[in-house]
Amino acid sequence: GAVVSQHPSWVICKSGTSVKIECRSLDFQATTMFWYRQFPKQSLMLMATSNEGSKATYEQGVEKDKFLINHASLTLSTLTVTSAHPEDSSFYICSAAPQGGALHFGNGTRLTVT
Amino acid sequence: AQSVTQPDIHITVSEGASLELRCNYSYGATPYLFWYVQSPGQGLQLLLKYFSGDTLVQGIKGFEAEFKRSQSSFNLRKPSVHWSDAAEYFCAVGASTGNQFYFGTGTSLTVIP
Predict the structure, then answer these.
(1) Average pLDDT, chain A
(2) Which residue on chain B is closest to A59 by alpha carbon?
(3) Signed CA dihedral, A96, B20, B62, B83: sign only
(4) Running DSSP on this structure, what letter comes out for residue B31?
(5) What is the DSSP letter of A51?
(6) SS (H, E, C) A15-36
(7) Is B31 an interface residue toward A (CB < 8 Å)?
């Protein structure tokens, strides 16, 4: 079945540094990928839609300059949290769907900013 | 407006007992419906989906769900719960491609021996 791989699974960084999270579709091509943020014991919040070869579409309230998204190929999207602060600490999850199929999710990245 | 409601925030069942997790949706078009499971610290795993056809769908791990259009519901069931089923369960509705996906707030399942 469709597999979405996300890396790293966890990362700890210092305040002010940047962190890059990768999301790969392993056995299908994805022109669109999605980035979610999940707060403890809450549901997923869609942050942005990553579009291969064009700019990402951000949801209202999400800072595009803080959360940089790049979708350079049909199998890879990256989310870079720039100048991270403790309030950016969260669980970030990406997803993608094969053509006509259901969304599949990566295993998530636990970001802790100290 | 599109939305998904999972009325039960937390459910506790005994191992071996049956389980039903409720999901109600509001969606303007023909809905695609999904159930996902999330173990602690993990991403979401697709349990099952309904696109069309038979309204009773079978999924992985012995789960099934029934689409009832008249009730705008898509409840998840399992005849006999195992301790490993303890997790967070999310119902979702939307287009299959994800850009109009709406998640419920989740139901946390605890299984007691």
Answers:
(1) 92
(2) B99
(3) positive
(4) P
(5) E
(6) CCCCEEEEEEECCCCCCEEEEE
(7) no
